[in-house]
Amino acid sequence: MKKLILVLLLLLIPMWAWAGPFLVCDPQTGITHYEVVVNGNPNTVDAQDTRLSYDLDGLGIGVHNFQVSAITLYNDPNGGAGSWGKSDAVPFVGTRILVNPASGLSVRDVPF
Fold first, then answer.
1. Which pLDDT tens digit goes with each residue over 46-88?
2. Does 13 map to a domain?
3. How many domains does the chain have?
4. Regarding beta strands 90-96 and 33-38, do their DSSP bridges make them parallel or antiparallel, or are they unpaired?
5. pTM above the 0.70 mark?
6. Range of the domain at 28
7. 1 within a domain of the structure (yes/no)
8. Is 4 among the domain residues?
């Protein structure tokens, strides 16, 4: 039984590491990168299966302004001219709130 619990914990711990909020978008054909500007600070993010997945866990409490541009980079494998492009920035505003901690906690021998 102890081994089963240990195995379950080892399987669940990586899920906790990805539990934070993410700024995401739908998949877009041909997109290789995204430029994410958070409160005026630009970041270049590799596309994950042609979609955006930007971790918001490090942002503080309050309102945050985002601008996202899709970027495509293509290198011709035959040595020809490559191509690139960048979309217009799309604005987005999000607010991280402070959540009150759980209260009234106790240990009991019955659920309620």
1. 999 889 999 999 899 999 999 999 999 877 677 666 678 999 9
2. no
3. 1
4. unpaired
5. no
6. 24-96
7. no
8. no
